[in-house]
Specification:
Blueprint: H1 25-45, H2 52-59, H3 63-69, H4 73-89, H5 102-119, H6 126-129, H7 136-162, H8 171-183, H9 197-211
């Protein structure tokens, strides 16, 4: 995807994980198995109540199998959280030669953000539910990602206001208020519920555009 940047590198001190030395297609599949099993447990029980032993039992494997790929449950939790963080916080990245008006970029970027949050459910909402579970290094990296997103959004909002397309007071407060809408999805959104994913994206996007003062 053309809008990815260097900031998506995972904020682990070491590049390798667990005892794994080189990734292959087979090992990537096993890592995905572990991540999927852990996602279910973290979503149902929360971070504190989930143990490596439970993840092992969920998979029906041995502890050494899981520790080969991940050093602890915190690394698994951070891996699950980092993927949606990158997708969400690069939603306002557009090519340098994109000459479309700010209005178009803002509305498209907000929709990308909401769609990414839903696509990565429930992992995308882990940071909202349990912010205490992350290492300081991870929190710093995520904060850098968020700053990257809001710097771009605020600049586009200012440009759009000059064009007469947005009506707001403080750009940062406005941006934070609009983007808090998908942040609270964890309190009510359930896949397969009353609204489809696309209906939820459409409804929340319109609400966010209103908060931004879109004319």
């Amino acid at each position: 995807m053309g809008r990815r940047t260097k900031i998506e590198q995972h904020p682990r001190d070491a590049v390798s994980t667990g005892r794994q030395r080189a990734a292959t297609e087979a090992t990537d599949l096993q890592r995905e198995r572990i991540l999927q099993a852990a996602t279910t447990l973290f979503a149902e029980q929360g971070y504190a109540a989930t143990t490596m032993a439970q993840i092992v039992r969920q998979l029906g494997v041995t502890k050494p199998f899981v520790y080969y790929y991940f050093r602890d449950k915190q690394e698994i939790f951070e891996r699950l959280s980092w993927r949606p963080a990158v997708d969400c916080f690069t939603a306002m990245d557009f090519p340098a030669d994109d000459t479309r008006p700010a209005r178009t970029k803002v509305t498209e970027g907000i929709e990308r953000l909401i769609r990414a949050t839903i696509a990565h459910h429930p992992c995308a909402v882990f940071p909202y539910r349990e912010p205490q579970a992350y290492r300081p290094a991870y929190r710093a990296a995520q904060k850098k990602l968020a700053r990257h997103f809001y710097d771009r959004l605020c600049a586009l909002l200012e440009e759009g206001r000059r064009d007469g397309d947005f009506d707001f007071d403080d750009p940062m407060i406005t941006a934070l208020a609009a983007c808090s809408l998908p942040g609270f999805l964890y309190t009510w959104y359930r896949p397969g519920g009353r609204f489809t994913a696309e209906e939820t994206v459409a409804a929340l996007s319109k609400l966010a555009w209103r908060v931004l003062g879109l004319r």
